[in-house]
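Appendix B, example 12.
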Amino acid sequence: MTIHIANAPCSWGVDDPDNPHLPPWSRVLREAAAAGYASIELGPWRYLPTQADELCAALRQHGLSLVAGTIFDDLVSEANFARMVELTHNICRNLSQAPSARKIAGSRYPAPYLVIIDFGNPQRAKFAGHSQRAPRLSDADWQRMIGHINTISDIAWRQYGVRPVIHPHAGGCIEFADEIARLSAQIPHQTAGLCLDTGHLYYSGMDPITWLDKYFDRIDYLHFKDVDAAVFRRVLASGVDFFSACAEGVMCPLGQGAIDYPAMQAFLRERGYQGWITIEQERDPRNAQGSLRDVSESLRYLQSVGFKQETAV
């Protein structure tokens, strides 16, 4: 099993580029490198430099490469879609020009990846983790979203050579087991792969290993999180939205929560996973002072339970 482990700006609380409390991007790059990571995700567009030459210089200064970029927005409405197309071009252009995460032999679709996440429906955000209560999209809205994802995926792959991967996300319109199944039936693997996230699977009522096994042949990229079980029970009972739950500490360093990572390592070894894993720990950016400690602990923990990686860019 050949894997590489990256991190992402959301571990410093960076999800909304307009949040006034975000740490400087230079600090995020510096601390990611200091913690032992060779690659990082781009984070929300406009957080890291948007000019390719400035972005490349910043990454090289810290010995980092880019493993992925993310579209995290409303993919359902037609009114928002032109902006999503423009964003796809911007992200993929920089991913194709910046230092890219190492290609892994045996990986079906190597990095970089465009992680595609629907998010922006306030009712779905409110009912994150509540499968029985969360409203599903109408058939017309669902089919429109599928068409948008197909278009974005085609742009990423055909124009830039960036592999699109769809990420089911707590609080989005692709979250629960029935929605993952419906998506997988409608979008073939040749069009887009899956980026399954252990923390979001758990948050949404699915055992991570069971669902990684079920969709293993569709998985091109993985996200690892851990979930504080006590906080999780409290936030689901209180009905707070997903990002409020993150601000309350529902995500914790790997090895300190409910997800069995020794079992995950054994599973991925048995299935022969070859590819990138990105550790994430969403938090309130006002608590970013703990990020270096936590991303360092998460990486050390994975290594302690048998996740071996090559760290060169």
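The mean pLDDT is 95. Strands lie at 3-7, 39-41, 65-73, 113-118, 163-166, 193-197, 219-224, 226-227, 251-252, 275-279.
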